[in-house]
Design goal:
There is one protein chain. By secondary structure, this protein is mainly alpha-helical. The chain has a single domain, classed as Ferritin, core subunit, four-helix bundle (Ferritin), CATH 1.20.1260. It contains five helices and no strands. The longest helix is centred in the middle third of the chain and has 28 residues. The protein is elongated and about 60 Å long. About 25% of the residues are buried.
C-alpha cells in the first residue's frame, strides 16, 4: 500500500462479481445444491429398486446419475464458498411414489431433471452478461441437464417411436 493512502473498504460482493443480483444468485445456487443432493438420494434409491432382466445396466446407469448429481452439488457448493457464502445443508424435493416400475421411476426422474434445469436457467438469467464464471457454469449445467432429459426421454419411448415424451418444453 502506498504511503499516505487509506485502506479502502472491500468491494461489495455484487460489484466484485460483475454487478449480479448477489443474494438472488446465492439463493439460486443453494436451491441447486439442495436439488442435486436430493438427486443423489433419489438415484441411489432408484438403483436399489430395480428388478428384472435388465437390472444390471439400469442399476449402473442410476448409480452413475447419483455420482453425477453429487458432483453437481459439490460444484454449486464450491461456487457458494468462492463467493464467500455458506452452502446449505438442506436437501431438496424427495418424493416417494412407491411406484417402482422402471417407466414410473424414469418419469419421476424426468420431472426432477426438469426442476434442476429450471434452476440452472434461472441462474443463467441472473448472471448472463455479468459474470463469465457463473454464466459458463450455468451454461454447462443447462447442457448437462438437457442431455440427461434427452436420455431419459429416449428411454421412455417405445422402439421405433421418434416423438419425444416430454410435454411442453
Amino acid at each position: 500500500m502506498a504511503k499516505g493512502k487509506k485502506k479502502s473498504k472491500s468491494e461489495s460482493p455484487s460489484k466484485r462479481f460483475g454487478g449480479i443480483p448477489y443474494a438472488k444468485v446465492c439463493d439460486t445456487l443453494n436451491e441447486i445444491l439442495k436439488e442435486e443432493l436430493a438427486g443423489v438420494v433419489r438415484y441411489t434409491h432408484y438403483s436399489m429398486m430395480v428388478y428384472g432382466y435388465s437390472r444390471i445396466p439400469i442399476v449402473s446407469w442410476f448409480r452413475e446419475q447419483a455420482n453425477e448429481a453429487l458432483t453437481h452439488a459439490q460444484e454449486a457448493g464450491e461456487l457458494l464458498t468462492t463467493m464467500g457464502e455458506h452452502p446449505s445443508l438442506e436437501i431438496g424435493h424427495l418424493l416417494e411414489s412407491h411406484n417402482h416400475d422402471i417407466g414410473d421411476i424414469l418419469r419421476e426422474s424426468l420431472e426432477m431433471e426438469g426442476i434442476a434445469l429450471a434452476l440452472y436457467e434461472k441462474l443463467m438469467k441472473l448472471v448472463e452478461g455479468k459474470n463469465v464464471m457463473l454464466e459458463e457454469y450455468a451454461r454447462k449445467m443447462i447442457f448437462a441437464e438437457e442431455m440427461h432429459r434427452g436420455e431419459v426421454d429416449k428411454m421412455l419411448r417405445r422402439p421405433g417411436d421418434f416423438a419425444s415424451v416430454i410435454k411442453g418444453k
